[in-house]
Specification:
Immunoglobulin-like, 2 domains, mainly beta, elongated, single chain, 22 strands
Amino acid sequence: MKLIKNIYITLTLVALTSCGELFNFEEAKPAPDGVALSHHEVDVLVGDSIILDTYIKPDTVDVTYHWEVYDDVDAVNLIGRRVYANKPGRAKVVVEATGYDAENNKVLFTDSCFVNVFEWRECDPAEYLYETVVYASLTIDNELMNDSMRDTRLVAIVDGEVRGEAVMREAYGIPYLEMRIAAAWPGESAQIQCYHRIGHERFVFETLPLHGGTYGTLSKLKTYKTTGRKQ
């Protein structure tokens, strides 16, 4: 004769003592072991925003979040988890996660993200007399920039002003970027920058003298490549 035992695992274990009394043993709740933000440093153009996701360890615990902004508090506006870029500056966004351990003691964990806010002013190229043309390619995380990357801008900056922005072209089956840079006089210099909105990063490549000529050709494009992302 076989003795068959059915074992059921539940959140509450019921024990029967020799005196017939019942005791409930509640399974200990998991305690939070840390909190992490999705980013720890980002670049955000004025007018843009970013959502900072939070990750709690383990992800089954209940915690309460509290957000604060430090340093240049006027540079950003914080609504929930979304950070809006207001004006150039560097702000520190801090999240606090409060929970309770197995003994019901309060525990607190924090993480932070630096938000670098920058501004590009648009200009009217018709107001400038000279023009320099750049034929280039841009590689972002080992992927060549193409028409689908509409959230990426390759620009020429002079004193914070966008004097030229790259547009996608194709000739003889060759895709390339064409950037026409306006200059007030020969000899001005422009800084070539890239803003990757999805990755929330700005890259500064080089400074080009604006001599009114051309940089790069279809057979030998100027090449720009981004480095690794901030986390």
